[in-house]
Amino acid sequence: MSARADVQLKDFPSLFSLRDKTAVITGGSRGLGLHAASGLLQAGCAKVFITSRKAKACEEACEALNALGCQGKAFSVPADLAKAGEVERLVGEVEKYTDKVDILFANAGATWGAAFDEHPESAFEKVMKLNVQSVFVCCQKFAPLLRKAGTQEDPSRIIITASIAGIGIGSVGEHATFGYNASKAAALHLAKGLAVELGPQNILTTAIAPGFFPTKMASGLMELTGGTKALAEANPNRRLGVPEDIAGTVVFLCSRAGSHVNGSSIVLDGGAIYGKSRL
């Protein structure tokens, strides 16, 4: 191949475009899910379905997203994925608007902190169920719509939100997050299994492993482990995560630029897992 052909990338202006795509984001009403939704809409998605447990939060998120002035639209479809049958109901609600889904961002999750001897069995079970089981069920039940959208040239995408707590050891001591740590390690491994199973069906599966982002779920643990200023100073990148870090990564993974990424995980922590700070 000539040098001229090597430098002329195929339609580079559209490399990160998500024009006319349809996305479903669980846990999309705030935090990382909302950051991702904003990026997907601004990258060209035609429909972005926002789901979380609270209907009001979903509606407020969609109102904010639709105020961005994008050509696409955000839709509120509240569901409590921890309850039996809710994923199936969610799929049915989405099918009222579309017969295919290009992107599933499985982001819903929960955590629990307590010392080892006092850590409730019920809390461990709750965290594992939402962070692992419901993610699997979401992928399973949305698979028919993802198959309809995906082709070998343009596969559908599943992105699973894990955490660097699933790579390192997470929080220990008085506010230990044993269930959360185990669940996020399981989420990372689940992504690998789904990548092998669904890849031949034109569905690519990846995971993201964020460190600390100033979100509602992380705020309590961040304060207990020194506060945002101390955590930022301990980070090799000298800052915490910002919305663009999530939005940019998700857009990359869902676009043509990320069409050969399957089964991998992307760590978004500024190098904290290799530094002195422990998450």
TrEMBL record:
Q: One Pfam annotation, family name?
A: adh_short_C2
Which InterPro entries is this protein grouped with? NAD(P)-bd_dom_sf (IPR036291), Sc_DH/Rdtase_CS (IPR020904), SDR_fam (IPR002347), Sec_Metab_Biosynth_SDR (IPR052178)
Q: Name one GO molecular function term.
A: oxidoreductase activity
User: Which positions, given as ranges, span the membrane?
Assistant: none
Record keyword Flavoprotein present:
no
Q: Which domain of life is it from?
A: Eukaryota
| Keyword set, alphabetical order | NADP, Oxidoreductase
- The yes or no answer to whether the keyword Membrane is present is no
* Gene3D superfamilies to which the protein is assigned, alphabetical: NAD(P)-binding Rossmann-like Domain (3.40.50.720)
The UniProt entry, under SUPFAM superfamilies, shows: NAD(P)-binding Rossmann-fold domains
- Family the entry assigns: Belongs to the short-chain dehydrogenases/reductases (SDR) family.
Q: What is this protein called?
A: Rhamnolipids biosynthesis 3-oxoacyl-[acyl-carrier-protein] reductase
Name the source organism: Friedmanniomyces endolithicus
